[in-house]
Amino acid sequence: VLPCIFPEVANKGAAYTNKLRFSVLAAAALMNLLKRQRDAFGLSIFDETLRTHTNCKLSTSHYRLLLTYLDELVQTTALNRPTSAAKSLHEIAESIHKRSLVFIFSDMFEQSEDTEQLFSAFTTPQTQQA
């Protein structure tokens, strides 16, 4: 087993980065880009359950709210929390517009034996029928 690419360190300084912090920074950068392009954006955060899910909006107050959610995620997240990506991705897929662009930041260490269920969340209902 290989050690984690971004291991936990005792003295976490400003330059400290792990997978979660990287994902938060990347999500914030994409939100900033979409805001500058005047495209609406939303945010969904999940582990075992869908913790946060917002509708797509363009307002500055919505942008600030999502940055607050991301900051809280970095500040309060416990390590090694199990995830249920398949269930959460299905919930998200049911609630978003069918032409939405979705970015997923995950280590994809799904505990489910059924990987088909996980990847079926990435397909649209029209594709599943084919």
Describe the overall structure.
- It is built from five helices and two strands, in the order αββαααα.
- With 130 residues, it is mainly α.
- It has one domain (19-122).
- It has a two-stranded antiparallel sheet with strand order 1-2.
- α1 runs antiparallel to α2 (60-76).
- The longest helix is centred in the first third of the chain and has 18 residues, at 19-36.
- It starts with 18 loop residues before the first helix and ends with a helix.
Helices, strands, pairings?
Elements: H1 19-36, E1 44-46, E2 50-53, H2 60-76, H3 85-95, H4 115-120, H5 125-129
Antiparallel strand pairs: 1-2
Rg, alpha carbons: 16 Å
* Biggest beta sheet summary: 2 strands, antiparallel
Give the domain tally: 1
Class by alpha and beta content: mainly alpha
Number of E-state strands: 2
Would you identify the regions where 5 or more consecutive residues have pLDDT less than 50? 1-7, 126-130
Content of β-strand: 5-15%
What is the helical fraction, as a range of percent?
Answer: 40-55%
Query: What would the average pLDDT be, to the nearest integer?
Result: 79
Number of DSSP helical runs: 5
What gap, in angstroms, lies between the N and C termini?
A: 39 Å
Shape descriptor reads globular
Biggest sheet strand order reads 1-2
Order of helices and strands: HEEHHHH
List keywords for this structure.
single chain, 130 residues, mainly alpha, two-stranded antiparallel sheet, 2 strands, globular, disordered C terminus
In short:
The chain has 130 residues and is mostly helical. The protein is 44% helix and 5% strand.
